[in-house]
Amino acid sequence: DSGVTQTPKHLITATGQRVTLRCSPRSGDLSVYWYQQSLDQGLQFLIQYYNGEERAKGNILERFSAQQFPDLHSELNLSSLELGDSALYFCASSPSAEPYGYTFGSGTRLTVV
Amino acid sequence: GESVGLHLPTLSVQEGDNSIINCAYSNSASDYFIWYKQESGKGPQFIIDIRSNMDKRQGQRVTVLLNKTVKHLSLQIAATQPGDSAVYFCAENIQQAGTALIFGKGTTLSVSS
Predict the structure, then answer these.
(1) A-chain residues within 8 Å CB-CB of B34?
(2) Cα B111 from chain centroid?
(3) DSSP state of B7
(4) Greater pLDDT, B28 or B71
């Protein structure tokens, strides 16, 4: 157990729908990072939050948004879902704003049908 | 481009052999590198990291080598075991891109006994 908790583990939904993925960082970590991993692809960085504020943005679509709450958990919202959004979504956390000591959760597998 | 890449998508070795997984990076501003291991159905797991002021770092059965002259990173696994079978990713921190790690596509290591 890495200490980073992601829920749900699996999600199946239809095109056009909206889903929310949740991440609880490791105790004491202030940064949360979201990554997307499609089939046979590497990990694509989406967005980082540090202590409640957006810190860095990667290849995140406008249909996707995220936030980090005062208790430091984070949610990734995916809307107007398309078949191509089917992927593994990983959350990672680190103690500070810097990426040292990155720890990943076990991911949420999203299937859009 | 500025993404981290790997030389080979797959590597097959015999149990007990030493494995070498390579990674090339293109941005000379990168100052921090990490190797992750991802087993099927799991999140990436930290193996070892190295900062740009170092050439070599050793862990338990693993060694990371950094050659800044040719922008090359390698992961050496000694006495490879079947449990080492996984996808291995290198990741870099590109200072100008913010604080998130950028990942390459990965090398699948298969260990046969």
Answers:
(1) 102
(2) 17
(3) S
(4) B71
Share of chain B above pLDDT 90, in %: 70
B40 touches A: beta carbon within 8 Å: no
Candidates A55, A99, A104; nearest CB to B44: A104
Do residue B43 and residue A104 have CB atoms under 8 angstroms apart?
yes
DSSP assignments along chain A, one per residue: --S-EEE-SEEEE-TT--EEEEEEPPTT--EEEEEEE-TT--EEEEEEEETTEEEEE-S--TTEEEEE-TTS-EEEEE-S--GGG-EEEEEEEESSSS-TT-EE---EEEEE-
Mean pLDDT, residues B50-62: 95
Q: What integer pLDDT is reported at residue B4 of this predicted model?
A: 54
| Closest residue in chain A to residue B105, using alpha carbons only | A42
Q: What's the pLDDT score for residue B3? A: 43
Q: Does B15 touch chain A (CB under 8 A)?
A: no
Q: Has residue A108 got a pLDDT over 60?
A: yes
